[in-house]
Amino acid sequence: MASFFHHLFCFLLLQLPLFISAQTYNNITLGTSISNLQENPYWTSPSGDFAFGFYPHQNLFLLATWYSKIPVRTIVWTANDGKPVERGAKIQLISNGVLSLTTSNGTEIWKAEAIDNSQVAYAAMLNTGNFVLFTAESRFVWATFDNPTDTIMPNQVLDLGKKLSSRLTKEDYTIGRFELVLQGDGNLEFYTIARPTDSRNDPYYGSNINDNGTQLVFNQSGYIYITLKSGGVHSLSSARPLSTEDYYQRATLDYDGVFRQYTYTKVSANGTWPESWSTSWSLPQDICTSNFGEFGSGVCGFNSYCRLAEDQRPVCLCLPGYSYLDPTNTFKGCIPNFTQQACGTVEPRIVDGFEMQRLPSTNWPMGDYERFLSMNEEWCSETCLKDCLCAAAHIGVRGCWLKKFPLSRGYMTSGTGVSLIKVANSSAERIPRTAYNGNIEEDKKWIIPGSILLAISVVVNLLFLFLVIYIGCYKKKTKRQTYTRPFGGNLRSFTYKELNEATDGFKEQLGKGAFSTVYKGELKSDSGCLVAVKRLDKVVEGNDKEFQAEVSAIGKTNQKYLVQLLGFCNEEAHRLLVYEFMKNGSLENFLFGSLRLKWNQRIQIALGIARGLAYLHEDCSSQIIHCDIKPQNILLDESYVARISDFGLAKLLKSDQTRTTTGIRGTRGYVAPEWFRNMPITAKVDVYSFGIMLLEILFCRKNVELKVGDEEIEILSDLAYEYYQQKELHLLLVNDEEAKNDGKSLESMVMVALWCIQEDPSLRPSMKKVTQMLEGAVEISMPPSPNPSSFSNISPIV
Questions:
Q1: Residues assigned a catalytic role
Q2: Cα–Cα separations (whole angstroms), residue 120 to 29, 44, 114, 140, 701
Q3: Quick one: which of 630, 756, 749 has its CA closest to 684?
Q4: Virtual torsion, Cα 128, 132, 136, 141, nearest 10 deg
Q5: With pLDDT > 90 as the criterion, what percentage of the chain qualifies?
Q6: Which terminus of the chain has a lower count of CB atoms within 10 Å, N or C?
Q7: What is the CATH number of domain 1-146?
Q8: Whose CA is closest to 671, among 634, 628, 704?
Q9: 534 assigned binding-site residue
C-alpha cells in the first residue's frame, strides 16, 4: 500500500512546477553558493531551458542538471555518482576555483575543478545544457559535457575511452549495471558490469566498424554518429531526426541497458503538454535476445526472463513459483518461493513435492549442463524431475536440454520451443519471504489492485503515445520529401547522365554566380528527393584526385547550419556538386526586399550562421575558411533555419577567379581589409564578413547603398558605430517595431558586429567567441571604432 501511494504522490508532484520562480545567472562568480534550504536552489541557463542545482528527490536532493521549462522535468546529469544529499547541503564555487558540494556540517563529498590546474574565474549554465567552469580568458576547463553520466545532448561528443553509465532504476540515480563505451579502436560497445566491481562482461552490442572511429557525436541537427579516422561517419540511425529548433532532444543509456534517443516538443498544443518523452530509435532493438556472452545475468537478473512490451521496452518476469528478489527493482532477479530439491546419496527419484510447469516460447541458452537428442517433451520433463541438479529443461528442435540453477539471460520470443520449470507443488515446503522494508505479506494483498491500476495507467499512456506518434507520422508523410541522405554519410558519385536527367537537362535555374550555376533537380531513384545541383564553370585544372580530395573534405562536414553535400560528379570536363535542396532560397530575399523576416527569426538566423562558421573554423578535421560570407550564400530551409552554402569551394576555384581585385576572394562590401594589405589570410576574414552581414540582418539594409553611377552614399558599418555611440540605434530601423522594442538585444548584437569588423584582425573575436557572445554566455565589452587611423594598442577580445 505504501509503495502504491508513494508512486501516486510522485506522479502528482511532477505535474506541479518545480519551484515558484528561478533566478537566471549568466556568470557565476567565485564565492557564489546555493543551498538546498533556499527557495530557488539552482542556476538556470539564459534561455531558461536548463537548470543546475539541487533537484528535490524522494525527500532528499540530487545535485543535477535538468530540463526546467517543460512539465516533464528530466534529469540529464548528476554529481556525486547520483547519490542524493540531505537538507542543508551547499554547492559553492570557492575562491580557488573549485566547485564544491558539502553537507550540512561542511564536509566536502564531491568537487569539480580544472583538469589542467588552470585558474577558474567563473562558471555558467549554458543554453546547451552544459554547466562549465571558465578561466578569465573564457576557456573551458571543466564541463558536465566532458563528464557525462547517462545522457548526451545536441552539441555534445564522447571522445575515445569516454562512457555513459546507466542509473540503477527509474527512480534511483546511483550507478547501474550498464555501460556504453567508445573503445580505443573507435567501436561503440555496450556492457553489463559485474557489480560491485567495475569489471565488464562481454559486450551485448557493438558497432562493428571496420574503420577506426574517433568520436561519438550528437550534432546540432539531432543526428548521432561515430566520426571515422578516414573522414566519414558511421550513423547509429538512418532516420532523419526531428528539428532541434522545435524539439528538445537527448540520448540516454537507460536503466534497462537500452540506448534511446528521445524528443519532447518545445511548444505545447493548446496548452497541453505530452506526458512523456517520445522515443525516436533505440539500440539494441531487442535487448532481450541480445548475446550477453558467458557471464552475468543479462538484462534481467537471475531466475527471470525478459519479454518485450508493446512499447519495445524490456519487462522482467519471474519463473512460475519464484518471486522478485527486490519488488522495487524487477531487473534484480528472482528467487524460489520453495526449498529446492535436495540431492541425496541414493539414486535420484521423483520427489512427490515437485512438478514441472510448462512455459512456452522461453529459453535460458547459457544454463545448459546436459543435452539429449531426439527426445520428446514427456521424456524431457520426467528426466529433469528425477535429476536433483535440474532446475528447468528446454525441449526444442535439437532435443532436450537440462538447465542448472540459477538460470540466467532468459528471454521470451516466438520460435524458441518450450521450457519446463521445476516448482514445488502443494505438498512441498514453502519459504516465507521478507521484504526489504518490513513484512511483504502485509503488502501482498495490494499487489493485485495495484497491478490493475498500474496496468490501466500503462495502457492509457501507451494509447496516448501511439496517438501522438501516429499523428506525427501522418503529418510527416503528407509533406513532400525535400531532403534525405540515403548515402549513409559517404558522398555519392553521380554520373553526368544521372544529373542531366535529374535536372531535366539543367532546365530550372536556382541561381548563378561568377563561377557556378545552380539548378533544381529531383533524384527519381531516391524517392523523388529534391536536390540542388551546382555546376562549377571554372575549377582548378589538373589532377582528378585533388578535386575529389577537396570535395571529400566538404563532404565530411555534418552540422545543422551547413548545407549538406550529398554527392558529386567528376566526369571528363564536368564538375558538379549535389546538395540538399533549400526550400526558401537565400537570406538575401528576406532582408532587402518586401519579404522581411521577423525580429526573433533574424536573431536565430544570425546565431545559426555563427555556429556554422565556428564549426568550420574549429571543429572540422581540417580548418575551412569560407572566404565569401554574404546573405546570398546563406540559404534557408523549410523552417527558416540558416544554412551556410558554398563553404570549402575556395580551393576548387581558379586562382584568378575573383569578384573584385585579382587575388582577393569575396564580394565587395564584405571583404576584410587584410586582403588588400598583403597580410596573412586567416579565419578572421570570415569573422569580418560575418560582422558586416550581422548588421545587414539586424537592420534589413545593405552595407553599401549606391546611387546611380555607383557613387557610394552610405556605409551601414560606419553608421552603426556612429549611432551606437549616440545611443540612437533605433534610428537605423525602418518599420521594425519588434526590434525597436528589444533595444537591449539590438545593442548587444551591434556590439558583437562592431568587434567582428575591427580593421586589425587580432582584435576580432573567433567565431566560437562570437557564438558565446550572441548566446549571452560571455559579457561583451565596449567595442572601439572599427576603422582607427592606425592599429592601436586595444586589447583583443579573444
A1: 628
A2: 10, 20, 7, 9, 42
A3: 756
A4: -120
A5: 45
A6: N
A7: 2.90.10.10
A8: 628
A9: yes
